[in-house]
UniProtKB/TrEMBL annotation:
<feature type="region of interest" description="Disordered">
    <location>
        <begin position="39"/>
        <end position="100"/>
    </location>
</feature>
<feature type="compositionally biased region" description="Basic residues">
    <location>
        <begin position="62"/>
        <end position="86"/>
    </location>
</feature>
<feature type="region of interest" description="Disordered">
    <location>
        <begin position="125"/>
        <end position="151"/>
    </location>
</feature>
<dbReference type="Pfam" id="PF03781">
    <property type="entry name" value="FGE-sulfatase"/>
</dbReference>
<keyword id="KW-0808">Transferase</keyword>
<dbReference type="GO" id="GO:0120147">
    <property type="term" value="F:formylglycine-generating oxidase activity"/>
</dbReference>
<protein>
    <submittedName>
        <fullName>Serine/threonine-protein kinase pkn1</fullName>
        <ecNumber>2.7.11.1</ecNumber>
    </submittedName>
</protein>
<dbReference type="GO" id="GO:0004674">
    <property type="term" value="F:protein serine/threonine kinase activity"/>
</dbReference>
<dbReference type="InterPro" id="IPR016187">
    <property type="entry name" value="CTDL_fold"/>
</dbReference>
<feature type="domain" description="Sulfatase-modifying factor enzyme-like">
    <location>
        <begin position="181"/>
        <end position="406"/>
    </location>
</feature>
<dbReference type="InterPro" id="IPR051043">
    <property type="entry name" value="Sulfatase_Mod_Factor_Kinase"/>
</dbReference>
<dbReference type="InterPro" id="IPR042095">
    <property type="entry name" value="SUMF_sf"/>
</dbReference>
<feature type="region of interest" description="Disordered">
    <location>
        <begin position="411"/>
        <end position="433"/>
    </location>
</feature>
<keyword id="KW-0418">Kinase</keyword>
<feature type="compositionally biased region" description="Basic and acidic residues">
    <location>
        <begin position="413"/>
        <end position="424"/>
    </location>
</feature>
<dbReference type="InterPro" id="IPR005532">
    <property type="entry name" value="SUMF_dom"/>
</dbReference>
<feature type="compositionally biased region" description="Polar residues">
    <location>
        <begin position="125"/>
        <end position="145"/>
    </location>
</feature>
Length: 433
């Protein structure tokens, strides 16, 4: 064998080293480019575990990496799946001191329907009355106040309350009497059941009454309104009625007023005292409930007694299906009618019909020893709104007040029917106006 010189061997060795270095660098560069996804992303992907060499001397190829452009860095840990939360249900907290129960929470029931426009509502009548107050929308024919405009013209001295809706006949659901700034509630025309069977003699028999539409004051006339009335009379040099409690809170019902003085106030404001039928329908609605809120027992947010005098609208539960306040409690209220224990039966006998149409009440206080007795309603035993009382019209009582009505037929003509006006004059003469 020929022996190569040392220098040749050394040259071959150096060339082999350079060749191996080049191969090493080439493999390194290819590996870097392969692992970095071709250099499209600045951040390398997570390392892939190398598999051991196979027995055949071949290395199992790496899995192909799919290049993705403009993607965010992936987490090496498996993301945790979060369950979607159901949409939140807004919960309106119940105002404080709204209602207080007797502890029979299982006897309460909530109506599913939303409130109607103008805060109108009615009460659910149960086969077995629950010991609670239950509300549902009243079928008053109210719109949302935007679907159509009022088709009637209110007389001078009255204005519609914006946003309270319009009745099917085109009348505003709420109006304001500009003379005394009293808000008034529309009571739509229709039938209602008056009286009760099996109760006190003067409250029966139960019967049907048909009334035309009218407005009634939202609450009793207050001391503040009555003082305004006296100031107006004084400014016009007119005779003044007796001054009431000058220190009383203006938000309290004006009590201590005689029947005749209440009527004078009503006419000053362009209104009248309600008939007994008008008062009961406003309190009872179209269904013969025992209370304005339904047939359930009274529930007050604080102690309340009969003839207890509070600022008007203090007890939110004392609200009729039409939205009229303080008809079960607070001040007792004068009505237009003469009182008679047999007035219902006499009216039915005289009409020869099962339904009475706009009954004015008896012509005199028949059957009473005191012939000056007028009807007083509200704040009666058990808070029941079909109960009646008769009080001499000259009485000044710290528990008796009043509210007023305005009849739509009166407004359409601009003046009362002459025959009705004559009857009113005769009644005023008998009553000592």
């Amino acid at each position: 064998m020929e022996t190569l010189p040392f220098s040749s061997v050394d040259g071959y060795g150096r060339r082999a080293q350079r060749l191996n270095l080049r191969r090493f660098l080439s493999v390194l560069c290819v590996g870097l480019l392969w692992g970095c996804g071709g250099g499209d992303e600045a951040t390398p992907p997570p390392a892939v575990e190398e598999k051991p060499l196979l027995t055949g001397g071949e290395v199992k190829p790496r899995p192909k990496v799919v290049k993705k452009s403009n993607t965010k860095r992936r987490s090496t840990s498996k993301p945790t799946r979060r369950r979607k939360k159901p949409p939140g249900i807004p919960i309106t907290p119940m105002p404080e001191e709204e209602f207080a129960s007797s502890g029979n929470a299982d006897e309460f029931e909530i109506a599913d329907e939303p409130f109607a426009v103008g805060e109108s509502f009615s009460v659910n009548r149960q086969e077995q009355p629950l010991s609670s107050t239950q509300y549902a929308p009243a079928n008053t024919g109210a719109s949302d106040g935007t679907s159509h405009e009022s088709r009637v013209r209110l007389p001078k001295g009255f204005a519609a309350v914006p946003g309270t809706g319009i009745s099917e006949e085109g009348w505003p659901q709420r109006i304001v009497s500009l003379q005394d700034e009293a808000e008034m509630v529309l009571i739509p025309a229709g039938l209602f059941t008056r009286g009760v069977d099996g109760g006190p003699e003067d409250a029966g028999p139960q019967h049907q009454v048909q009334l035309d539409s009218y407005y009634i004051d939202l609450h009793e006339v207050t001391f503040a309104q009555y003082r305004r009335y006296r100031r107006d009379l004084s400014a016009n040099n007119q005779r003044l009625p007796k001054e009431l409690d000058s220190d009383a809170d203006g938000a309290l019902p004006a009590t201590g007023v005689r029947w005749g003085e209440a009527g004078q106030y009503a006419r000053w404001a362009g209104k009248e005292l309600p008939t007994e039928a008008e008062w009961e329908k406003a309190a009872r609605g179209n269904v013969p409930y025992a209370y304005p809120w339904g047939d359930g027992k009274p529930i007050w947010h604080r102690p309340r007694e009969l003839s207890q005098i509070d600022p008007v609208e203090s007890f939110r539960g004392d609200r009729s299906p039409f939205g009229v306040m303080d008809l079960a409690g607070n001040a007792r209220e004068w009505c237009q009618d003469w009182y008679s224990a047999q007035s219902y039966q006499m009216a039915l006998d005289q009409s020869n019909a099962a339904t009475l149409l706009n009954p004015p009440g008896p012509r005199a206080a028949v059957g009473s020893k005191d012939r000056t007795v007028r009807v007083v309603r509200g704040s009666e035993e058990g808070w029941e709104i079909w109960r009646r009382s008769g009080i001499p019209m000259g009485t000044r009582s710290p528990t008796i007040g009043f509210r007023c009505v305005w009849r739509l037929g009166q407004g359409e003509s601009g003046r009362e029917d002459k025959q009705e006006e004559k009857q009113q004059q005769r009644m005023r003469k008998k009553g000592g106006f």
